[in-house]
Amino acid sequence: MPNRSKTDIVYPDGKDFIFTIFDDTDVATLGNIQPIYDFLDSVGIYTTKSVWPLNCDCQKSDYLGSHTLEHEVYRKYIVSLTEKGFEIGFHGASMESSLREKTQKGLEYFKDVVGYYPSTYACHAGNMENMYWGQSRFKHQIFKDLYRILSNDKTEYQGEKENSPFFWGDVCYNKIDYIRTFTFSDINLLKIRSLPLYINKDQKYSRYCFITSDADNVNEFNKILCRTNQERLERERGVCILTTHFGKGFVKRGKLNPVTQDLLTQLSRRNGWFAPVSKVLEYLKGFRGETSVQNDNLFSLELKWFVHAFKRQLNRLPYEKTELEYLFPKDLK
Q: Is residue 6's pLDDT more than 60?
């Protein structure tokens, strides 16, 4: 087990901080994600890219045009990422809601393609099979009620509901180690709690939960990864697991955003540990005394989420939707 002091974590190989990314696969195609993953590989930053294993059966979706593992060339590229050291995570079976049978099929196809079941999972948007999502993320009734009042999301997600056709909680518990829960606006997650993973004993179908920092699109990513924040992350010996969508504006006509490229280059030259999400979380599980969340600590975490969610709403940044040329190339003139 790694050693640590009361206020510090000893990172592998004498590193000073941890940085990794969980990339939600929304609006991702081979064309608008390959340049950034090729670049990450070139600078030695290894992260987690989520996928949808299966195509959508629907005729209408905000995510139509996104690639899944059923897209042959994209599938081959995803396999090549695993061979380079990237992790592949699960974002649900498909871009829209999946019944239990489709979720199971998606997981099996994921394993057939990638070579292992996903260790990390993040719920996607309004999918009905989402696990402990919406107001079900919260233990305390005051936060459930507040979320219901303030959010436009009135959906009763059913992934853990045993009588629902969307139930797959037992499968999730047997196959998946880590479920993403709350996201925050701080680059250093140790400012949120002492470790970014925890056990919520009220969630019987969840092994471990993990929190992340959040940057929806390229401009928000560049803002949170600015030089000042990089310096602070290193100085504070922090941990950053950054949720983003690499499909959202990072690549334009085959070229990676130059600001993103420069910031990632700067980051790669710092003394950080750049490992995929599950590898980071597995290491941090060595500090077991910090993983079980008591009621008071969970109340604090849920309260902090509301504070940070409000801040993120105030500071949201628009971006150029360059992904449209990859999602719908035939529609372009």
A: no
